[in-house]
Amino acid sequence: MKLFEWTLRLNGFDIAFAKAELKRIQSNNNQYYVESAKIDIVNHHKKFNSFYQNFAGTNSTWDWESLPIMTKTSLQQPLETRLSNDFQKDVYKGKTSGSSGHPFIYAKDKHCHALSWASFFDKYQWYDIDLNHSKQARFYGTPLNPLNYYKEKLKDKLANRYRFPIFNLNDETLAQIAHTFKNVDFEYINGYTSSIVLFAKYLKKQRLILKDICPSLKACIVTSEMLFESDRELLNTQFNVTIINEYGASEVGLIAFENENGDFQVDDELLYIEILDENDNILPDGELGRIVITSLYNKAHPFIRYEIGDMGALKHEKNTDKTILSNLQGRTNDIAILPSGKVVPGLTFYYVTKTIIEESGNVSEFIIKQIYPDTFKFIYTSQRPLSTVEKQAVKDATYKYLEKGLNIIFERVPNMNRGKGSKLKQFTALATG
Fold it and tell me: Fewest Cβ atoms closer than 10 Å to its Cβ: which of 73, 206, 221, 319?
């Protein structure tokens, strides 16, 4: 039974139609088709989306490179002001992880969201992974709020996933994870790079090979954070399965996926990717610049020339018409070691900061620094200072996801001091236990 597809359909995402539509797009995917799709999505939002009309201007004559670059800051305003007129209610809503320090709420029309899932189905099948049937070992966070916790548990059940706790990856927890692999026929791993690498380091220390423990395992898909070559070598050795790098963002879906040749293949069927310099000029192949993305099929919410916050370079393969992400820089997260010895990945702070990611868009940027083992500084820019109630909500979430007794300091600043790059690193461990 295709339980996962049934669940998507039950939630209004026609995955069967989306799969057929994706095949149609793939059969027509050439330069002329992409140019037509770009024109169509811009014209749609210029006609039906007042936010984009104001952002880009209503001039009916335009060329692509004259369209303004959309940043995450551009989108930090109430969601209802950013929705297209014909998609005010029946949409999929989500929150960005805030890993770049710029959190906001976004929307996709249901067909666009179904197309995103169809793309995941398609790419995973390159490695004989079936999202309906292949058992997933999931290294992701779990909300501790009871309602959201049970929602995620239900989603995991329906999607054939087993979720491991990652908020305390000490040796005891990692030993329990290894024991689970002995008893469950997992086909693939999916999750945060840093958490999976920690598990591999534990296996190395214990002189264990994961494929020997779990013979059914085929592949490991790492996402959300950078995969460095040294970490890939460690995973290859300790897991002894195919290691696959995935690059995506919740608001636009799958951006690039490692193909069988080891190339980071861009999902140019649903997205249009550009690399720009500091003056918004399009860079030629091989040159490093800002990654800018256009979602070609999201009619509910414009993501047109949207700067994702990472740096990269492209390579266009003439013999295959495929676009390769030849260089990617960004998305690294430190690990926090707490006074108790508890080890938590930096992306844990996504679950903490969700407490202040509001549709009002008050907090526009934030970073978190561990300045002592027991002390964290929350530095933010906002339209107004956080209230006492909001600060307490952040503290309570920190105690829940990390541990009690930590000191939380708040500092509101007019502007963030970003270094050479344009992307903020959400969490930095300046001192560890």
Answer: 319
